[in-house]
Specification:
Largest sheet: 4 strands, mixed
Number of strands: 4
Oligomer: single chain
Low-confidence stretches: 174-184
Strand content: 5-15%
Mean pLDDT: 86
Helix content: 40-55%
Radius of gyration: 15 Å
Distance between the termini: 19 Å
Length: about 190
């Protein structure tokens, strides 16, 4: 299957549509366990598995499109369950791969991996998943655009660095708010 090019506005619109489709309000932070339950309810083929730390090497999590399962190391799982921003971003990144319909076994690990440097397709999918994660956790709506980075960090329980990046994206004017399109990705 050929990998689809998506603009930032399209990624943001899909993330917002998925967020709303899963029943999260625009002004609500994503709760990890609620997200896992809602994904399973909406997409019966979706599964997640807690795995031993180190099993995935340097990867913080992994999406396996063939098995339709998200592998989450124990430490990341526990941090996400406590609402820690970095862990939530990691999970949202892998959810992005799933709901954007990315194929393959994809890892959330250090940016700029060797494979990413040599594969434009992989580089594009990783960019899309990173963008999706930010847009899923911090939706692009007029009310959210009015918040500063500190308010974004507190309201959506993301790290300050993630909030600063997302605030910059929202304020850049590059991705004017758009009505969400029909969600794509996993079917079930």
């Amino acid at each position: 299957m050929r990998h689809a090019f998506l603009t930032d506005a399209q990624i943001d619109a899909r993330a917002l549509a998925h967020r709303r489709g899963l029943g999260f309000r625009d002004d609500q932070a994503i709760d990890f366990m609620t997200l896992m339950a809602k994904l399973k309810a909406r997409y019966p083929n979706f599964a997640y598995e807690r795995v031993a730390d180190g099993r995935l090497g340097e990867a913080e999590a992994q999406w396996d499109s063939q098995g339709k399962r998200l592998l989450i190391p124990e430490a990341v799982f526990e941090r996400a369950d406590r609402g820690e921003g970095r862990a939530l971003m990691t999970v949202a990144h892998e959810v992005g791969h799933a709901l954007l319909g990315h194929e393959g076994t994809l890892d959330r690990g250090p940016s700029g991996s060797r494979a990413e440097r040599f594969s434009p397709r992989l580089r594009s999918m990783e960019y899309q998943a990173r963008r999706y994660a930010a847009a899923f956790l911090i939706p692009d709506t007029p009310a959210v655009r009015a918040l500063d980075a500190t308010e974004l960090s507190k309201r959506y329980r993301v790290s300050m660095s993630a909030a600063i990046v997302r605030h910059s994206e929202l304020r850049s004017g590059e991705n004017a708010w758009v009505s969400p399109s029909r969600p794509g990705g996993m079917t079930g």
